């Protein structure tokens, strides 16, 4: 920004912006101040004096406000920060952080992304110089998130983190705050009365919120080792009157009995483990970012901290640039600090997995166990412990439950190793690099399944890297895979009672109402018995208890209520899908899942829509953008609750994809199937897919989503679905995408499937039936039309016009074979449908009536046939002048029927009309006209032979 930029301290239109409030000719350092929740830069840094002090006329004392200065903004007051750090260029950053008004409901990541973009754009216009941040309250969390995001985005990492030489945090709630409950209620109330509120931000302040804990873990790790950072943490020492803080007043009065005074951000919450210096201020929270004047003692302490950052700036930057490079650590997610038990297994892994040049080969080890016992968590904890003892050892995590996941993770390793990205050769290139790499490494294959072809292609002992400075670890539920790899196995079973109690206590907290740390009370004993030592079940149960604030006894009661038939049916997984899980583990997982599912279904429809979609996808790397696009439900509306209950997880912090545990996904499918919604949900999901046709321009989207599309297509067999045009289209497009991705095997399989489904297309079946009729193969034609009608009834309702049209083709085939009774039944049903839906005068209805009359005639029911033809003529309301060709044909048939019934007078009268009309249309010598004349002569002769009055008869020669 230019020096002429005006000082604007209000946030307009909820916009985020960087504002320069003080400039110097040759700045040496940049100071950026970020406000917190429920405020803006206009008020955050301003101290309002209780009374106005006057000064003498000769001049003002530095730091003392004049009569005109009833407020002191220490960031821009020329007698304060600008005077104490004269070489500083000072900015404020405004973002919409009000939880009671003027806020936008954007998650922390969105605000951090905007902050990085705004600051990066400004810094690119200036020479590089040291940066010092001053962050107040929630602004500190915004800053922490932004710095973590910049560090994790290696491809687009800028200069913000590398140029930062110090951070001052003013009462930032790193550990959350119990007062956030009141803030959250206030945010809800604000929405109810029509004001905006940023509830997604406020919810992070709950002490139990996992997102906050994960963010701070990441931030402390970045600040401590990769980017050593001087930090100062300030905390308040006076309580805040919460009722005064909460608006509107109606909410303040309602909450008054709950929290008269609260320490919003105490020393524990405001402290980071990486901050050597922590300073308290004897003020309430609202004054933590304000100073009365330059002579205030706590202001002097703050200025000393800032000047210390300035004096050590170049040393900090230089030391950071000279830091030795660190090994590549590519482990998804963050370390689980609540990890409990498994000491025997960890000790065994600690002796097996460290790479050692003394070995004459690359060791292969395997963690083998049932689904849900914590194989991946154990592998992750073992890897982190290895990193603590072998900091030079690179670690690479490869998801191996599908070929797509494996290839994607290998591409990520290629980028980390600096290799040219070659998607088709990523696996081969990375393994060759590891074979030639001098430094130690650990390669972890997580979730190797039992698919034989996949195993032979990618995870064969002859194919894996063999460098003796490396080590390989796999997790699998199939002992046979470990045997084929000649791996040393570490068996993992259910937790014992002590381990399960330790895990439960860590997740709930030993002070939680109803939990006995000794495990002796009846409720705790019963809960542990029900959870069966299954880590996944314990995790789901504790998430529910923490999020609903219920007691252990409450949860046990819920379990009992949900027991019985539903849980037993939920545990009866289809054969082959869960053959490695025991009945006990299935029951424990199913019950805990069911309790939580019912709560989500009742309270959050958005989250439930996500679950129904996710149930159709592959378990790993489901793009959030795909879920949002296909369900119409945004991330903010669903992800928080699903992650809170551990239904879904993110592979790593800030990832734009989510994973779902196979057992949770399977249970969701069974839940849908129990209610008869399985097939319909799958078909609806496929029909709603908004994927473009695969081309070179759209291939990136297909590359991210094709695995999930194929998973949807594999939910039900084509025979059970029949021909569905939208499904056929998706199969065809997926095959073409595989072709463009050079996966010829999958492309061939999908295109073959599309061709088989196309054969089920009723239109194609109809064409085949017509061909059989031309060839005189009426029995085969009948079978074909029966299949056509059956397929159409799957797609359409029984009375749909397309169905009735095919039924008429079938009736025609039956009639040609002499099966007149069956033909009559079909024509009669179709006629009643068409009269009801199309009307008696519709051409289709008239045509069906003609066919029914013909069938009745062929069946010998001449009276019935006559009745239909007479009705047909009455409906057509034809006269001799406008009679149609179709009506003339019907009249011919009726005339013949009259003669067969010896009704010669009616036949003769009708034929005279026909002959006159045909003379006018075709001419008297036309074959059709002459045929009608012969019928007329025959009618006359038969009538006269019966009448005895031959003298009145015209001469036959005249007629000829």
Automatic annotation (TrEMBL):
Which Pfam families does UniProt cross-reference here? Abhydrolase_6, TPR_10, TPR_12
Q: Which GO terms describe its molecular function?
A: ADP binding
- InterPro entries attached to this UniProt entry: AB_hydrolase_1, AB_hydrolase_fold, NLR-like, P-loop_NTPase, TPR-like_helical_dom_sf, TPR_rpt
> Domain of life of the organism in this record?
Eukaryota
SMART domains the record matches: TPR
Residue intervals of the AB hydrolase-1 domain: 88-265
**Coiled coil (UniProt feature):** none
Q: What is this protein called?
A: AB hydrolase-1 domain-containing protein
